[in-house]
């Protein structure tokens, strides 16, 4: 997700929890399982305007997050094995699964070597239309557009206006307006309008996908890694809760066959794009289940308790967020305490 508009991240209290070692006083909060979410894994950027910064962590931070998780006694498993592991866990056993959304090229280059070093399985959630270069990532397009321009012309619904984006503050404001526009009008329509404006402003949205997202050939290569698993992240990266039943089914079913073809592995899980409450609920979970998938992950923060309250088609996840790249924050997240207050 692209949670600039809807941040699901736990900012307040993380530092406090890390400092006071509160986890020792609320041991039950940690649960039996945790699923981490990542997007980009790559060296830190030095750019001043980076509205998607929270979607990027460094390989070093991933390495220290894995170490901390293993030091805390978590057993790493593939997401598709998590339910079985948690259900059959012996006392005091707890499990972790790592997931990466959107299928970024840097996942193969920078993240996979770190996972291999620790022999930790990982699941990539792949967007079929990005792999095939038929769809674009509006949040990256909006970033490139607002970064490269001093202004641009856009119709947010009240006629064409000039949007200033000379200063970083103006760039942020313009980015947020574009994000809100995508969220409030028909998503396909909004994305195509953004792409048209980007194209006429010298920003090529398809080239961004080409630069950032794994193609079929690289997926084939990654498929031979026994630690790598693959899950569905739809065709178009649309908000599934906003599309009709027929489209919903297509967005889930078509990527299953494509992923099997590209990677040689049958996907068993889905990450609902955006993952927040208004992007996935019982209808989307049921469609995924009927398509033969056995796990669904959201971006709602939380841990898995190993009780009948767990909904395996709408699991919570914990974001390893680019804005909080400290080992002590990972320890605070593992304590489960931050989610008691949400
Ligand atoms: Zn995504």
Automatic annotation (TrEMBL):
Segments forming domain NodB homology: 94-342
Record flagged with keyword Transmembrane helix: no
Family of this protein: Belongs to the polysaccharide deacetylase family.
Keyword Signal: yes
SUPFAM superfamilies in the record: Glycoside hydrolase/deacetylase
Organism this protein belongs to: Oricola cellulosilytica
Family annotation (PROSITE patterns): NODB
Protein name: Chitooligosaccharide deacetylase
Keywords, comma-separated and alphabetical: Signal
Biological processes, Gene Ontology terms: carbohydrate metabolic process
GO molecular function annotation: hydrolase activity, acting on carbon-nitrogen (but not peptide) bonds
Functional description taken from the UniProt entry: Is involved in generating a small heat-stable compound (Nod), an acylated oligomer of N-acetylglucosamine, that stimulates mitosis in various plant protoplasts.
